[in-house]
């Protein structure tokens, strides 16, 4: 029996890693083929297209050369969305309502982590030329602090705003979640106004996180395009992968995870079996909040600048990713995040070229909400459908 449990635990660690590889490669290949086919159909010399005219190349050549770098950037963004979407998925799987305050939980994690790093920089602890090990240590410290603050906030929100409304119609806690979202936004603004007097914060530059690892280059007309990835992008991907694997293991291979799945399946029966439903729901919010807080600091590390409303668009797109993959499904959150990140990056890079300048990168957000509408129309349960065994 002990050997079986060990093999089961190992399987729950390896399975999500395999799923990530399959989803990343599958989504990249499918979307790349669609893009190449479109480029082939529209292929022409770049008369009137400023971007292509500068390089004097065809649309197909430009697409193929830029595709590897776009895939790297899209996967990085996709893993960020997937990490945020897990918070929505956890809460929906147990309570079956959308916690719209999760985007502000994300923002709290970002602000706490960034403020700690700013305080360390003001004391001369952080610098660009500091040893790599020290830089990673302080980043982990800020990450853990952001996770703790976000997780505690999520538990408090559940206890004060959601638990008293648990027996109410579903619309009531939904309205409460929207109210909590606005309250937390203004709370962040108030705290920042009192303590720093600034609403916009920029994460300090330290360590080697901004350095770029170059894989090579591809010729484009008279010049070339370098292919590479920033170290901070690798950190985002690795951290998101660890969180996704850890969450999958927790939900599917531990007693707490079994209790979470039991409460998600039938709260009344789980209570009769001796499970403390309130405690398990609080733990669910704690887990979702800590993941959201970690995603907040990772987002700040990647994009450098945050404000009290930083969680709105990433949270909305992560919700879109959760619905796209199948909300309530951990695997679906991963797939939805990857697909959405790739689509958004593809649109931001190639839309202007494909439309001859008629529509630029500013229209990339249309993809997120357009896809959500299409999914709700043609497949309301998402790409992965309903999978009760995977709900958390």
Secondary structure layout plus pairing:
Layout (H helix, E strand, L loop, with lengths): L1 H41 L7 H6 L3 H37 L6 H21 L9 H31 L8 H25 L5 E2 L9 E9 L2 E8 H23 L1 H11 L1 H6 L4 H27 L1 E2 L5 H14 L4 H25 L10 H14 L14
Antiparallel strand pairs: 1-4, 2-3
Helix pairs in contact: 1-3, 1-7, 1-12, 3-7, 3-10, 3-11, 3-12, 4-5, 4-6, 4-10, 4-11, 5-10, 7-8, 7-10, 8-10, 11-12, 11-13
Structure description:
With 392 residues, the protein is mainly alpha-helical. Helices cover 72% and strands 5% of the residues. The chain is built from 13 helices and 4 strands. Strand 2 (212-220) and strand 3 form a beta hairpin.
Unreliable spans are 45-49, 387-392
Question: Helix amount, in percent?
Answer: over 70%
Structural class: mainly alpha
| Alpha carbon gyration radius | 22 Å
Average pLDDT, all residues = 82
The N- to C-terminal Cα distance equals 25 Å
The coarse overall form would be globular
Report the order of strands and helices.
HHHHHHEEEHHHHEHHH
